[in-house]
Specification:
This protein is of the alpha/beta class. The chain contains eight helices and eleven strands. The protein is globular.
Length: 230
């Protein structure tokens, strides 16, 4: 299953405005991907529209988000259904500092439908750190049936970069890595590894190069892998 499980839509202020749900899924289809996840910062408000576009292109879609912990570690949360992901996104958004977005400085935060129409503008600045630590964020994700995967652990805002090591708790059976950067294999041990684009621009969405070895060609098989069950 060729996948890209970390990309940002136009709802993330750091992403291009043309990272619309329809454009993301269309580009993923053109590039030969079979499954994707969209992981906006601390929210899931664009996920229903991404799911609609993904269904149109025949893509397996796993709803997700990228949470920033109190330690400023980026943590990916993946879920089995859009409704739960949107609900959890609102929990994390409510733990952000009460700051309004400044579009001219940070970028737009657009909720877009599959016709590329703006249906809402998010006023809360989404890219700050929540007031929840790594353990608390992981607990919220898992209590809602989700899978927690530390993002780009060997890059800025990565777990190893910010903390220097894996904590004793919580345990993470799967991590996302950047292969082009230095990586201490001894620290990672036997954990499974994801490779993703972290795309903020359409051209950066991954080609069909990372073949995830899932046992079942389905959302369930994909989720079992990222949760460490497969």
């Amino acid at each position: 299953m060729f996948v890209d499980l970390h990309m940002h839509s136009c709802l993330s202020p750091c992403a291009d405005d043309d990272m619309t749900p329809a454009n993301i899924c269309g580009m993923a289809y053109i590039k030969g991907l079979q499954a994707i996840a969209v992981t906006d910062h601390n929210t899931g408000r664009n996920l229903p529209y991404v799911k609609e576009a993904a269904d149109h292109y025949g893509l397996i879609f796993m709803p997700g988000m990228e949470i920033t912990t109190k330690e400023e570690v980026h943590l990916l949360g993946y879920f089995k259904d859009v409704e739960t992901a949107v609900e959890v996104g609102e929990i994390f958004s409510s733990h952000l500092p009460p700051m309004k977005n400044k579009p001219d400085f940070f970028g737009n935060q657009l909720v877009m439908n599959t016709d590329d129409e703006v249906v809402a503008v998010e006023d809360r600045l989404l890219i700050g750190a929540t007031d929840l630590d790594l353990e608390e964020c992981t607990k919220i994700i898992r209590e809602h049936g989700g899978a927690a995967v530390p993002a780009h652990i060997n890059r800025g805002h990565g777990l190893l970069t910010n903390l220097g090591l894996f904590p004793a708790e919580p345990e993470f059976p799967v991590v996302e890595v950047r292969n082009e950067l230095d990586l201490n294999d001894k620290l990672i041990g036997d954990r499974k590894r994801l490779q993703s684009s972290d795309a903020h621009h359409l051209g950066d969405i991954m080609e069909a190069v990372f073949d995830l070895p899932t046992d079942r060609f389905s959302l369930g098989g994909l989720f079992d892998y990222v949760s460490g069950k497969a």
